[in-house]
């Protein structure tokens, strides 16, 4: 739907409308608490999220750049198996889990620096993003607590993942029906942003977590708002003040179900005059 924008006389040019973006593998770490509390009680074709605990006994051999080891878990996961990192980034390590009973595999991500498993410390996060066989729809998320068992000659650790998992790979629906901006009187670089959207999860009763951000041309957040909503229409009003050196603003809106499945909407919001 076409959105209203500030006129050029107010220092903003008209921006063409865009459509809802395709689902993206995005995860708002600050929304984790919302997600863990948003579980519903009934389902339409997807399993209701259940508590999960995965214990990883691993090490970081001096001859390897990755962590590897064994794990134990409870249903709906397999009871035990092996894991190894397949990709290690600055803040995310992707980890392949292979079940000992041959039932299948699943892919987890450790959120945080890989060195966070070299200490006795809490505060990390995790998620499950893919799987094979009976775990093809497995998704989950939660928090991590690591214990360093030994550091000589290389780190040996036990990392305990607690949270929720479920057999549900479907993101919430998202339809943005209105985006408007209105200049605040006597403040040519400050305006009120109003966004109207509807969203719902495929599991009846689940709340949907949303995260709305306004970003500048360097992808720095200028304003943000997050919360939860039940199925239906949500209206957000946000005052945005653009710094003097910002020339363009864009909108990013993501919605998440309790398992972290997400759908996103992005659009150019405004170009600021000199």
Number of domain modules: 2
Number of strands: 15
Helix content: under 10%
First and last CA, distance: 29 Å
Backbone structural class: mainly beta
What does this structure look like?
- This protein is mainly beta.
- It folds into 2 domains: 8-30 and 170-271, Immunoglobulin-like, CATH 2.60.40.150; 50-167, Lipocalin, CATH 2.40.128.
- It is 2% helix and 54% strand.
- It has 1 helix and 15 strands.
- The protein has one helix at residues 32-36, and strands spanning 50-59, 68-72, 80-88, 92-99, 105-111, 121-131, 138-150, 156-167, 173-184, 187-200, 208-216, 221-229, 232-241, 248-256, 262-271.
- The strands form 3 sheets. It has an 8-stranded antiparallel beta barrel with strand order 1-2-3-4-5-6-7-8. A 4-stranded antiparallel beta sheet has the order 12-11-14-15, with no helix packed on it. Strands 9-10-13 form a 3-stranded antiparallel beta sheet, with no helix packed on it.
- The longest helix is centred in the N-terminal third of the chain and has 5 residues, at 32-36.
- The protein is globular.
- It starts with 31 loop residues before the first helix and ends with a strand.
Descriptive labels:
274 residues; mainly beta; Immunoglobulin-like; Lipocalin; 8-stranded antiparallel beta barrel; 1 helix; globular
Topology:
Blueprint (H helix, E strand, L loop, with lengths): L31 H5 L13 E10 L8 E5 L7 E9 L3 E8 L5 E7 L9 E11 L6 E13 L5 E12 L5 E12 L2 E14 L7 E9 L4 E9 L2 E10 L6 E9 L5 E10 L3
Antiparallel strand pairs: 1-2, 1-8, 2-3, 3-4, 4-5, 5-6, 6-7, 7-8, 9-10, 10-13, 11-12, 11-14, 14-15
């Amino acid at each position: 739907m076409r959105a209203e924008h500030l006129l050029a006389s107010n220092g903003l040019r008209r921006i063409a409308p865009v459509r809802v973006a395709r689902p993206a593998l995005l995860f708002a770490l600050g929304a984790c608490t919302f997600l863990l509390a948003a579980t519903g009680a009934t389902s339409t074709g997807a399993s209701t999220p259940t508590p999960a605990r995965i214990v990883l006994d691993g090490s970081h051999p001096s001859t390897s750049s990755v962590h590897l080891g064994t794990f134990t878990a409870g249903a709906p996961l397999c009871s035990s198996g092996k894991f190894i990192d397949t990709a290690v980034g600055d803040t995310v390590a992707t980890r392949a889990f292979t079940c000992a009973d041959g039932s299948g595999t699943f892919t987890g991500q450790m959120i945080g620096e890989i060195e966070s498993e070299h200490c006795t410390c809490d505060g990390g996060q995790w998620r499950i993003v893919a799987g094979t066989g009976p775990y093809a729809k497995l998704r989950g998320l939660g928090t991590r607590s690591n214990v360093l068992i030994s550091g000589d000659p290389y780190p040996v650790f036990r990392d305990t993942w607690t949270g929720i998992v479920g057999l549900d790979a479907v993101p919430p629906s998202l339809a943005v029906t209105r985006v408007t901006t209105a200049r605040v009187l006597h403040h040519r670089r400050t305006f009120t942003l109003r966004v109207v959207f509807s969203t719902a999860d495929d599991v009846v009763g689940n709340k949907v977590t949303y995260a709305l951000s306004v970003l500048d041309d360097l992808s720095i957040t200028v304003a943000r708002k997050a919360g939860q909503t039940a199925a239906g229409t949500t209206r957000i009003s946000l005052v945005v003040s653009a710094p003097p050196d910002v020339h363009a603003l864009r909108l990013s809106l993501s919605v998440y179900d309790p398992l972290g499945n997400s759908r996103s909407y992005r659009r150019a919001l405004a170009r600021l005059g000199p």
